[in-house]
């Protein structure tokens, strides 16, 4: 809805305001007349009508105050022509708005955070979690980014085809974090938020169709496909979380895994792999293994080594420690995890104590493992994860 409205206003703040007004109108109208058959279409129509009213008021003001005229919003014909040109560059409202929001005037982190919040509708606490910062810190960053857009008078302007590569890295990150936010929900009753994972996968497909020669666009799509192939087996019929070794591999989606493999092979043979292609290759090795025990852990550790070189993230280092535990044993991995405990960025990251707990459990240090499981339990608000962690306690 926001994407469709921005096409009318060509200004994100104005679009956000008229969309909020539409929700307010819905509260009154629906309480009086009942919920319409197509509530989303109703909201989009009202938001668009509100946006047109705002534009008419702006044009009236500009006609009376010629010195404040802004050619960027001068009339329906110009707007229609611009919209047609936009659609020719990126033929989808949502992807077009993501590219637009990932404006080079902002830092890459600000671009991604703002786009996740405003365009993708990801809540600020979830955006903060994705960046390993506190919620107040992330809220302040998003506010500063919006102020910079207003101060610099950055208007809604779809980048030309030649400008897309410069914004690609941020767009890839937005889609990846959108999928990650839905893949394991930070809070709530369900492990997965399918509305987010499905939307991210759709965006990744569109992006790959738009830029078929970009290896990392192929790598991102392959990564999401390899994860999506396991979606039906990550919980049991009662919604309980199942570890990778407990999942029914015969129920994994073979067509998605094969599609991911083709994309990875193409990306790897076209040049040096980037972080999404390397992550996709790791996910594909998991997906193609006949069993957990038969997984090619040495190859996965090697890929993590390469991933750390192109993307030195503490989360990657933590994931690498799991591969180390399977190759060199839990004691070697525990030393790496304990070193990561000194990294302040992982202070509230629930998978750090959870991983440590698993390693301690495998080493027979059950009391220490229980303490680590309790620490992980305090950091998650997801009911499925909480139930899983409680089940590990003595």
Description of the molecule:
The chain is mostly helical. It contains 19 helices and two strands. The longest helix has 26 residues, at 39-64. The model is unreliable at 65-75 (pLDDT under 50).
Unreliably modeled segments: 65-75
List the strand order in the largest sheet.
1-2
DSSP helical segment count: 19
Cα distance spanning the termini:
49 Å
Which structural class fits the helix and strand makeup? mainly alpha
What general outline do the C-alpha atoms trace?
globular
Task: Give the helix level as a range of percent.
Answer: 55-70%
Over the alpha carbons, how many angstroms does the gyration radius reach? 23 Å
Q: Mind describing the biggest β-sheet? A: 2 strands, parallel
**Beta-strand residue fraction:** under 5%
Element pattern in H and E: HHHHHHHHHEHHHHHHHHHEH
Number of strands: 2
Q: What is the mean predicted local confidence, pLDDT?
A: 88
Keywords:
394 residues; 19 helices; 2 strands
Put the structure in a nutshell:
With 394 residues, the chain is mainly alpha-helical.
List strands and helices in order, with pairings.
Layout lengths: L1 H8 L2 H22 L5 H26 L11 H14 L3 H9 L6 H11 L5 H7 L4 H17 L12 H20 L3 E2 L5 H17 L4 H14 L25 H17 L4 H14 L8 H14 L3 H15 L1 H11 L10 H12 L3 H14 L1 E2 H10 L2
Parallel strand pairs: 1-2
